[in-house]
Task: inverse folding
């Protein structure tokens, strides 16, 4: 039995939608996410630094590349001073600062280099959703970015866990 043309069209459309949804899921899956299992009382990290004697969270809320370079320089100086196995550094970007973590960011290579040294880069999901309303789609982040529910909440969580909080 040959299906009606509208049935073939419907199947084709369904197949295309399935592929599109799968591609969107893959795009979102590219970044680690703490959205499902965020526990304020038990911070989780992408990089395990079990011997860290110092803990630092840096905030970035500026959309100026000069400020991004400055924050990355501060992180690098702290890593150099203490040694990357003795300090845990988390950079939290929200508001206009989220632009630092966009895929086409001018500091993407520096983020990649610091990620290999154990620096974690957290992206505020609230800001991502606000940006998605303007763009019409979720922003694409550098692969090293970790999606957290809210930047300010992440900073509060890390302060509670003993991290020094600096906004350079």
Result:
């Amino acid at each position: 039995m040959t299906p009606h043309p509208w049935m073939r069209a419907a199947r084709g459309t369904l197949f295309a939608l399935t592929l599109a949804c799968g591609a969107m899921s893959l795009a979102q899956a590219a970044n680690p996410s703490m959205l499902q299992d965020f526990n304020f009382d038990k911070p989780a990290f992408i990089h395990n630094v079990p011997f860290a004697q110092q803990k630092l969270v840096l905030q970035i809320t500026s959309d100026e590349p000069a400020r991004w370079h400055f924050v990355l320089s501060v992180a690098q100086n702290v890593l150099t001073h203490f040694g990357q196995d003795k300090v845990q550094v988390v950079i939290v970007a929200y508001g206009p600062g989220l632009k630092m973590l966009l895929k086409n960011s001018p500091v993407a290579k520096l983020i990649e280099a610091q990620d290999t040294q154990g620096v974690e880069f957290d992206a505020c999901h609230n800001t991502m959703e606000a940006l998605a309303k303007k763009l019409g789609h979720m922003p694409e982040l550098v692969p090293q970015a970790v999606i957290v529910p809210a930047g300010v909440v992440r900073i509060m969580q890390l302060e509670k866990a003993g991290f020094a909080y600096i906004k350079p």
User: Anything to note?
Assistant: The first helix runs from residue 5 to 29. The chain is about 45% helix and 15% strand.
